[in-house]
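B., you asked whether I could sanity-check this one before it goes into the benchmark set. Here's the sequence:
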Amino acid sequence: MEEDSGVTSHTEGLNGVSHECKETEELTNGHFNHKPVINGLTPGHSVKEHTNGSSLLKSLPISALKQNGLLQSLATGGEQPKTEEESAEVEQAREEWEALESIQPVVSEESSPTPLISFNEALQHFQTTDLGEVLKNIQPTIRRTGLAAITHFLFGPPRIHRELLEERDLVFAIAQCSLDNSQAVHMRVLQTIYKRLTGSKQDCPRFGTHWENVGFQGTDPATDLRGTGFLGLMHTLYLVMDPETLPLARDIYKLSQHPTQNFPFCVMSINMTRIALHALREEALSKECNRRQQVVGVLNEFFVATFLHLYQLWKSQQKTISDSGFVLKEVELFAKKNPKQMLRRLDVFLRERRSGSAPRASPDPTAQQPSPCLGERGARSEGTRGKEMHFTGVCELTPDMEGEARLI
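And here's what the prediction gave me:
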């Protein structure tokens, strides 16, 4: 077997380690230069002769670099004499290199995203939680005295059936619960809302400006839950998790991102919860609850129906954020006065969607008419339309008037 051109010899290297030396021929300007190769390395070659200056180093173990003195030559700039200070730096570099060999990547236990949570699972959490202290502070009906109480008794809506009182009280108790960072269910509800609206698969931080992307007013969603408590998040969860209402939720969310008709989606949703709570407290939903023998289901549908009404009005009348206070007041008055009509409209809307036909833009002809109060606002809003406005539809409530919301 023929040998390659060149002579191979074995010499004893540093620390008694045997080196394999092999002369190689290099063609330079038409002349062959013979250079020894030690353990696959050619002394005197600069790092630039190798790809990116690092491919050769990566292909060798740390021990080979130590034996051949490459770390020292790289640190001292080639054949320059080594000083004590430089030797100390080289020793430190060698220790760091050896330490790198023992570093192992650590996989975080929390790297997997939290699973989505359904409305029923979240509701079950509150059904099995002791809310005794919270129930003491609820106000499920409006307190009436004197002639107002007699008139309401004789001509007002029917009282809710006794067997539904516990379910009704649970709704108002949830509305008294705040967002608790220590409760896993609370965090899952928050993450589910964010993921369903944005399409994200990964969890997002508890605090941050990303919450403004889904329509909260700041970096902490808890600050927007005044007046509705955790029920505001429960209703938004229902909207995005029900297969029939999810397309509507995405339509509303898309409109909330419009360049000129934008509005804070989650804050607006919380306002719809506030309107639904008022309707339940004023017993406007009692008749439908009694007929269907449930409270939570009726309240959920009324919430969606109210949000649908606002969406159609906002879109068809080209409303902007400067109109928000007047639009919310108009929607609230209409919804509480016509709860049965609101629920029927929602049923028609969802049925048309199931059949594949395009839902009508606005089922109510009167919804196309401008609000009576908009004319009074015209001159005032003209000067502020071009300015940045802060949407504050959710109000702060005093302890003795829980749920009695006032638009700010």
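One thing to flag: The mean pLDDT is 74. Otherwise nothing jumped out at me.
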